[in-house]
Amino acid sequence: MITRKTFPIAPFALVPALALLSSCGAAPTDEQTPLTKAAKAAVTDKAGAPAEELAREIDDLFTKEGIGETRAALVLLDGEVAAERYGEGYDANTRFISWSMAKTVTAILVGMLVADGRLSLDEPAPVPLWQRPGDPRAAITLRNLLQMNSGLDHTEAGDPPYDSSEVRMLFLDGRDDMAKWAKEQPLEAEPEAKFEYSSNTTVILADIVTRALTDSDNPDTRRKALSAFMQERLFGPLGMASMVPEFDASGTLIGGSLMHATAPDWGRLGEFMRKGGQGPNGEQLIPTRWIEAMVTPSKTASYYGFQTWLNRPDDRLERGHPLIPKRAPETLFSLIGHMGQYVLVSPEQKLTLVRLGHSTSAERPPMLQEVADVIELYPTPIS
User: Fold this and answer.
1) Is residue 280 part of a domain?
2) Does the pTM of the predicted model rise above 0.85?
3) How many Cβ atoms sit within 10 Å of the Cβ of residue 341?
4) Are strands 309-310 and 80-86 parallel, antiparallel or unpaired?
5) 41 part of a folded domain
6) In a domain, 361, yes or no
7) Residue 195 falls within a domain, yes or no?
8) Mean pLDDT of 284-294
């Protein structure tokens, strides 16, 4: 891989260089590697930024070492494609797995049902198992589940891996009825006492959504009810024709991790959120106040809203920030999935950036810095 470099000037070369500078009236520029055909082709005439700089920054996402493998990159500026590029073997028709980006989709479905009056945000979550006399889980609200502060004993990562609640739910003893397994776990903290990221929690939300649509326990009926709702209310109006969600054997949407869609369709979802819940023709698919709630910091984590990551600094973070608070507006938010799946949305810049691929936990921070290089090409308007 070739990167741009500034070559040192030896002391003895300074005098001729200064003479050349005085005679020409301009300083020599850094040498840059010529752009490849693929790099140039990625940028459209709607770039909204210097085309060559944008091409180089997108190229870095595909060629820099130490940041993993970028398989798709898409930049949308005010809804127009500014840049689009795919790795070898991938294209605009390739469905990419969401991993945890699906969580944000689940939160949107919850919001639609809240708007319909079929769910309530701050009443006890409609989980019959928790409503028995003396069960402390009765205090858990839908808001707690959305903000990942329910207090349920859900440990996302484990060592060894089979100690992970997510692994047990997805692949071991909970796999046939994931929501039932997740709901059966006890409290480890009072609701709203602490933030704990959990795919299990989102599956509970997906089950709540399904039960608001049908009383049936028949898996096929459950799948059909939710599939029809998603198509009619979200995927169809947005033109997300590629979306394929997965369900478990009980008919519960695996709403925390398993949805598949093309990069352009992930971009459509980002644009929907950027525009406050509006569809491509201006139709309001969900109240703007729900999107605003999704990107409002919770009491337990300023970097997390309703199943959505926020670009807000937080001194309580034990690890590095999941986004780029020093290099992008605080109003930026993101869908984030395992191994480096991102749909980053910056409303102030009218920008949506999709990056899909495969990056390890060590590769993700430097990869995000490359993403930040792209974002910084689009200035934040001065208010």
Assistant:
1) yes
2) yes
3) 25
4) unpaired
5) no
6) no
7) yes
8) 98
Per residue, what are the HEC states of the chain?
A: CCCCCCCCCCHHHHHHHHHHHHHHCCCCCCCCCCCCHHHHHCECCCCCCCHHHHHHHHHHHHHCCCCCEEEEEEEEECCEEEEEEECCCCCCCCCEECHHHHHHHHHHHHHHHHHCCCCCCCCECCCHHHHCCCCHHHHCEHHHHHCCCCCECCCCCCCCHHHCHHHHHHHCCCCCCHHHHHHCCCECCCCCCCCCCCHHHHHHHHHHHHHHHCCCCCHHHHHHHHHHHHHHHHHHHHCCCCCEECECCCCCECCCCCEEECHHHHHHHHHHHHCCCECCCCCECCCHHHHHHHCCCCCCCCCECCCCEECCCCCCCCCCCCCCCCCCCCCCEEEEECCCEEEEEEHHHCEEEEEEEECCCCCHHHHHHHHHHHHCCCCCCCC
C-alpha neighbours within 13 Å on the C-beta side of residue 105: 38
pLDDT digits (tens, 9 = 90+) for 242-288: 999 999 999 999 999 999 999 999 999 999 999 999 999 999 999 99
C-alpha separations of 131 from 182, 186, 217 in Å: 16, 13, 19
Mean pLDDT of 162-166: 63
Q: How many domains does the chain have?
A: 1
Q: What Cα–Cα distance (Å) separates residue 244 from each residue in 57, 97, 240, 278, 285?
A: 31, 9, 10, 22, 20
Cα–Cα dist 317/205, whole Å:
25
Instruction: Give me the residues paired with residue 260 across strands.
Output: 97, 244
What CATH number does residue 273 fall under? 3.40.710.10
Contact 82, 75 (CB under 8 A): yes
Band (pLDDT 50/70/90 cuts) for residue 359 is: very high
Mean pLDDT of the chain: 90
Name the residue range of residue 268's domain.
96-310
